[in-house]
Structures are given as C-alpha cells and as structure tokens.
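Following up on my earlier thread - several people asked me to post the actual chain instead of describing it. Fair enough. Here it is, all 92 residues.
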Amino acid sequence: MQILRVAAASRPKSVAGAVAAILRESQSVEIQAVGAGAVNQAVKAMAIARTFLAPHQLDLVVVPEFFEVPIDGETRTAIRFRVEPRRVAEDA
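Reply from S.P.:
Thanks for posting it. Predicted structure:
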C-alpha cells in the first residue's frame, strides 16, 4: 500500500492526481494528515479524485482512523485515510 503524506500547504489537485493514478492500477493508498489544515486538504483531494476516476467507472471507499505519530520528540494525533477503488456500474 502506498502512503501519501498531506500537509496544510499541499495542493489538493496534485494529491488527487496521485490518488487517482494509484487507484487506477487497482491498488489501495493511505493518506496521512496531521492538523486541521492538512486534513482539510486531504478531504478536498479525495473529492477531486472522485471526478478524475469517474470516467474509468471507479469510485472511492474511504476509511478514516486516528493514529499517533512522533514529530519532533512529541506524539501527535494524526488522521489516516485508507482509500480503495470501487468499480461502479456504467449506468449508475
């Protein structure tokens, strides 16, 4: 599973492109975000990725969860989004 780390300064469209490219290959991806700004960019990226995947009859399945990550000697709470592709019917 590939891991993408998203920061508050990340460009959602760029992250969305990376997510879509990974999911087109029928792989799953993990998006990690620490802080409200990073989570905001990650959620926007997932919404944009859906539009990139629609022509390929793919959608997203997203499972969010909390996890702890050490940053500069401190333990911070982050959010991990496990994202998997889901095939949708062409007429849906």
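The chain has a mean pLDDT of 93. That should answer part of your original question.
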